[in-house]
Amino acid sequence: MPNASRNRRAQIVSLSMTELMILLVFMAIAFSFLAKKEGLKEIPRLQYRLNEMMHQNATLKSELAARQRENANLRRHILKLEQFLSEIGIDGRTLKPRSTTIKIGGRTYKRLSGHAPGRPACALASHFLLEFHLLPNDIITGTSLRNEGDNAKSSAKAGFNTLASGQPLSLGQFGDAAHELARSASADYGACVFAVKAIRVTNNAETFDAELSLIQRYFYVSHN
User: Fold this and answer.
1) Is 2 helix (H, G, I), strand (E, B) or coil?
2) Which is more confidently placed, 192 or 223?
3) When comparing pLDDT for 26 and 208, which is higher?
4) Under the phi-then-psi rule, with left for phi > 0, alpha for psi from -120 to 50, and beta for the rest, what region is 126?
5) Strand-by-strand arrangement of the 220-223 sheet
6) What is the mean pLDDT of the chain?
7) Residues 6+ apart with CB under 8 A from 139
8) Would you say 167 and 141 are in contact if contact means Cβ atoms under 8 Å apart?
9) Can you tell me the distance from the alpha carbon of 41 to that of 215, in angstroms, rounded to the nearest whole number?
């Protein structure tokens, strides 16, 4: 009887081990199938990411080429500007004139200290074109300071004879004549202004300020 019981238990244990082995084999097959299926799913995702990276790389290469072309164009433009500045007598590094004269378009302009080179003084051998006296009661008189070395055509410009007549001019009369002179001078001299002297006669500060401000609207002024 005891032997029969032991044989029965052995059969049960053997059956259980067999079922366990079958279960393990089934699980292994299922795991292998799932792993293969997931691997197949990963391939399209990797291909998509690869295509996306290749597209981004092509875009970056195109942008780099465009920037290189822009950089080359800027270098050529800078070289032209440096050449132009050198020809007119301006230092390309400091942007300051190398001397007291600037040559632009075949014309020579004098530079006044403290004024930007973009608006130089019109070149005159005598340096100053006119001398103005700032009188009481908003009156200005002017005389010519041109010498024989100055361009004779400046005396024929509109407004010059009025300003240089020595006659008393109201602020309105002075402004009209100065405007005419500045406009006609610009046609021949370019973007420049004439230098003049201004001598204060009036003791009234407000009158002096009004007269001086009007003169400075049209001329570079040296005053005392």
Assistant:
1) helix
2) 192
3) 208
4) alpha
5) 169-170, 139-144, 128-135, 195-200, 220-223
6) 75
7) 168, 169, 170
8) yes
9) 86
